[in-house]
Amino acid sequence: MNFTSLVAYLFRWTGFGLLIGLLAGTASAFFLFALEWATQTRESHLWLIALLPIGGFLIGWTYYKYAESSVKGNNLLLEELYQSKSPIPLRMTPLVLFGTIGTHLFGGSAGREGTAVQMGGSLADQLTKWFKLSHEERRLVIIAGVAAGFASVFGTPLAGAIFALEWMLSRKFRWRSLYPAFFTGYIAHLVCANLWGIGHTHYSIPEVPGFTLINFLWIIPAGIAFGFSGRLFAQTTHFFTHQFSKWVSYPPLRPVIGGLVIAIIVWFSDSTTYIGLGVPRIVEAFEQPLPWYDWLVKTGMTGFTLGAGFKGGEVTPLFFTGATLGNALSTWIPLPLALLAGMGFVGVFSGATNTPMACTVMGMELFGYESGLYLAIACFIAYVFSGKSSVYGSQNLEQKIHIYPKKRYFSLDRWFKK
């Protein structure tokens, strides 16, 4: 690339980055504000949980009637990146936005990353309608949109860019995608946090021990546990999705049945700990011992919610699962409780999404760089031991390092097939 081409490239993607960052950052700001409102309203009026089946029907019917290809969610972004069939519909943004708010308002267990990423990707891809973009430029636009959505919803601009690049990597890395991803992610973060004043949850790891051989050896079993947990989370979601599709042919009815089951569980357990985002419980995981089964219950509740057809992301429930699993492991592993919770927070995320670099950087942005080595090792081990599994069915895993043979022994679908 000569100097003139470089200047043109920077000028073009600075303009696109500003536009995409403004759109995605604003969308994330509104989403986070609305999500906080939905959570507070539900917790103040617990009777709303009884309406979860009705809310589920409204969400399911709306998607059945109007979503078309948008029903694929994050997988549509991956498919368009790999195959580039047609522009991502703009309708994806309002559908996933209000679908997720409804899920949280009435008590489903879901996250927010999927919503922000889908909004960022769909808003960014509208540029293909407004400008004459080549196939390669469209790829960069989608990557920039994903980076913007992730960075703004979590307040982690570096991790947002790396997540988009790592998650959407297909065989060959293209250096041209670096600037759009990092610049757009940073702009979206500034728009959400500074322009609109939306804050993010703060976590703390007050004690990080010196890195020794003994401590390194203790990271290994923890990382393996996080990898298995990530795999279990992904396969639980796929399992329930398959079962609902198999036994309930009318899509709007699936979240009605799922919502009824969840409402009954919450009623009899008399606890709202495992619905919604679960951020308060995540914060507690860094501060005090919790019941050992928290991570397992959240895995089941989220997999069931998303499998039934409710909308939302997987990442915050993965944070919940990882932080509480790390908290539980502190009983046997002699590392500080908060450090294990932080390692699990990003480790399970790494295993379920196959993005160890993004998860490591995210952990350092959230918890501080002092814990970086522990986080990096835990994320890589979890990534390896999670096998060829992902919460995103369309993710390209051909090049993934894994330890499993082709025959799968750890598969819920295999166990329950008959």
UniProtKB/TrEMBL annotation:
InterPro entries: Cl-channel_core, ClC, ClC-type_chloride_channel. One of its GO terms (molecular function) is chloride transmembrane transporter activity. GO terms for cellular component: membrane. Pfam families: Voltage_CLC (PF00654). It is a multi-pass membrane protein. The chain crosses the membrane at residues 6-34, 46-64, 140-165, 177-196, 216-234, 255-277, 332-354, 366-385. Keywords: Membrane, Transmembrane, Transmembrane helix. CDD domains: ClC_sycA_like. PANTHER family: CHLORIDE CHANNEL PROTEIN CLC-E (PTHR43427), CHLORIDE TRANSPORTER (PTHR43427:SF12). This is Voltage-gated chloride channel family protein. It comes from Algoriphagus machipongonensis.
